[in-house]
């Protein structure tokens, strides 16, 4: 049985779904490994590294004929048409946005698995693509801020005078936000953070950050059973806007990471708040692809608004492509270990397994996940 990884065709997608260090792991599952010619070039994995580790360099057509086909983003309709019946297609397939492909997936009886739907449970942590990629995005957001910031991060006592430490505020303390706090601290900044989930207070403080939030009756119930944030009421939003407005004017850098699953990102920084910041300050909006936490941010651009830079890079994990690919490939391997039987090396979809059940979008010509209907 063959497993292949495709070369990504999207402009800003530098990642690859299979890295040289995972080849031996797949071989141990009884798979022959194919990689599309040049698929790893943009993430720092040239063909010869794959070959040296036992993979075969193959054409796109050959890769599309493998029993298991890996990708980062969903391939186009032409490619999907070429997959064989019962091919297992694994990627970050984004079913919310990619309904237009459901017909082809069903007509060609492709078994499609969406890695971003891996449940956030302890057993699935090693497959959790959202976490592995958000962690790197959080790190990179601070590096991108530092690149745009014309000043230093740490405090420096020099013979010529003192350099004050940068003040960094992080909005939203999920996986990306926590890594942004840790990265900014490591660079020597003075860090504060806010969230609507009061459980994050302890996490922020354990990283040496100062936690601020609007605490009221609503915030004591702001977390869903899955651990995500709820959308807050207008009244709460106004209190939160007041708190952020008071704090933001003193910040050099703001990292925005606040998201609500399946909804538009909450607007937390108004134009007026941006205008209260000193010239030379930087806002990095990691939520830009979900509409943004700041209405001034533009996807894929760095906007200069009265001297404040608003960074709206898209696909930030792809800006750390080598590590992001390596973690993604491991996430996929750990998932595949669940569906390939270790003894007879056959593929088996066990619907009683909560993870397999949550991830498999189409199977035997049917859309399985009702929420995308
Ligand atoms: N395997 C696991 O058990 C596992 C793995 C990863 C994450 N988690 C948990 O999942 C949860 C979500 O993590 P995530 O990083 O995917 O979150 P996310 O990307 O959905 O959101 C990022 C953060 O934004 C916050 N937010 C939303 N609205 C906000 C607002 N109006 N103001 C301020 N902050 C706001 C959220 O509370 C969250 O902390 C967390 O509880 C995390 O600990 C569990």
Q: Main attributes?
A:
373 residues, seven-stranded mixed β-sheet, Rossmann fold, binds nicotinamide-adenine-dinucleotide, 12 helices, 2 domains, alpha/beta, single chain
Q: Number of DSSP helices? A: 12
- Ligand list: nicotinamide-adenine-dinucleotide
**Helix coverage percent of residues?**
25-40%
Strand order of the biggest β-sheet: 3-2-1-4-5-6-16-17
Unreliable spans: none
Strand tally:
17
- Main beta sheet strand tally, sense and closure: 8 strands, mixed
For the record, the count of structural domains works out to 2
Structure description:
This protein is an alpha/beta fold. It folds into two domains: 2-117 and 320-363, NAD(P)-binding Rossmann-like Domain (Rossmann fold), CATH 3.40.50; 137-314, Rossmann fold, CATH 3.40.50.720. 31% of the residues lie in helices and 17% in strands. It is built from twelve helices and 17 strands. The strands form three sheets. Strands 3-2-1-4-5-6-16-17 form an eight-stranded mixed sheet. The radius of gyration is 22 Å and the shape is globular. The relative contact order is 0.14. The structure holds nicotinamide-adenine-dinucleotide (NAD).
